[in-house]
Design brief:
The complex is a heterodimer of chains A (about 110) and B (about 290). With about 110 residues, chain A is an all-alpha fold. Chain A has a domain at about 30-100. Chain A is about 80% helix and about 0% strand. Chain A contains 3 helices and no strands. Chain A has helices spanning about 10-50, 55-70, 70-100. In chain A, helix 1 (about 10-50) runs antiparallel to helix 2, helix 1 (about 10-50) packs parallel to helix 3 and helix 2 (about 55-70) packs antiparallel against helix 3. The radius of gyration of chain A is 22 Å and the shape is elongated. Chain B has one domain: Cytochrome c-like domain (Cytochrome Bc1 Complex, Chain D, domain 2, Orthogonal Bundle). Helix content of chain B is about 45%, strand content about 5%. Chain B has helices spanning about 1-35, 35-50, 70-80, 85-95, 135-145, 155-165, 180-195, 205-210, 245-255, 265-275, and strands at about 120-125, 130, 215, 220, 235, 240, 285-290. In chain B, the strands form 3 sheets. A 3-stranded mixed sheet of chain B has the order 6-5-7. In chain B, helix 4 (about 85-95) crosses helix 6 (about 155-165) and helix 7 packs across helix 10 (about 265-275). The radius of gyration of chain B is 23 Å and the shape is globular. Chain B starts with a helix and ends with a strand. Classes of the chains: A mainly alpha (about 110), B mainly alpha (about 290).
Chain lengths: ~110, ~290
Amino acid sequence: MKLFVKGRTPIFGLLAASLVCGNALAASEAYFKSAYAAADAAEKQAGTLRNQWLATESALADAKKAAQQGDFDRAIAAAKEAEALAKASIFQATSEREAWKTLEIR
Amino acid sequence: MAAHIGRVGRISVRWLSIPVVLLLATTCAATADGTDPVREARAFRDYFIQKFPNVKLDDFVNGPYSLNEDMRRQWEEKEQFPPYEFSLETGKELFAKPFANGKHYADCFPDSGIGVRQTYPQFDMKSGKVVTLELALNQCREANGEKPISYTGEDMAALTAYMAFTSRGKPFDIKIPDDPRALEAYENGKRYFYTRRGQLNFSCATCHVQNPGERLRAEVLAPALGILNAMPIYRSEWGGMGTVSRRFITCNSQVRRVPLEPQAEEYRDLEYFLSYVANGLPISGPGSRP
């Protein structure tokens, strides 16, 4: 069976490329959604600890905005940054449960 | 034999129980020690007296002006025509203006609300919560069928400015009633004060205990002792008046933390703690700051 027929190669090539691109876009979007969900969950946890950071909120907003514009690379990067920041704020809140005592005037 | 063993056993248990009792007693004493607001307020005050031996105790209420000569001179000149004067006038008018039902703010406070600023925040035994002056003003409005006003707005600043002005010179007189919930509120406020938060990893104490008198960009940091005595304040940075709520929210934003809602329980408890440790220091509000 001939996969490449003379004179029809560009059409097949374009079709294949568009399929690959479409799949890559869908994969990026799915990856973004999971990255955003992880960041959002971490930020919600920081919220229950009453210690959300402004930088996390703005990274989450950036991620959403980039995704709406179809720029999933930027959206994923921002979501990952938001998750890292949220986790840092959770660490801060939990470690400060005892650490604050070291600052106390006695 | 059995009786002998029993006696030895009883003696051993008795002897063993002594260290246990002693340990428990020590633990209880340490707990009581850790929640002694009188002792803590004294330690808090002593820290600033030792850190700034040339500052008179009552002068701490003037914040950065008590620590920086140049700023003090500028402030004294500014006080000839203080920037909070318009707000004070507005506050006086608002305070006297009757509600739709004919009652006034004065009807909600002891001594008709004149010269009572130094007694706020109070611990309300009924609700088990701290009631700040700002909260009391809105509770008064709601009790008289009026909508609450913004805790960070000009009207609240004006009303509290007027009430502070009528209380100038009166020493803070904050009570912690004999109620474990009141002590818990004080403890919560203290914990909030010392807890690091935000992306900058700052606590209130980072600026106002560890670094008062130092500069943070253009600002000279105020000492924590007496920091609320001048509230509300006119801040040149804001270009207007600000309430205690506004100040706490701004502080939280400055350390890159999402601020809590105005008059959140944490903020009220923080105000309770900071006011309590300033007991005996005179009200100097309304104030002005750069």
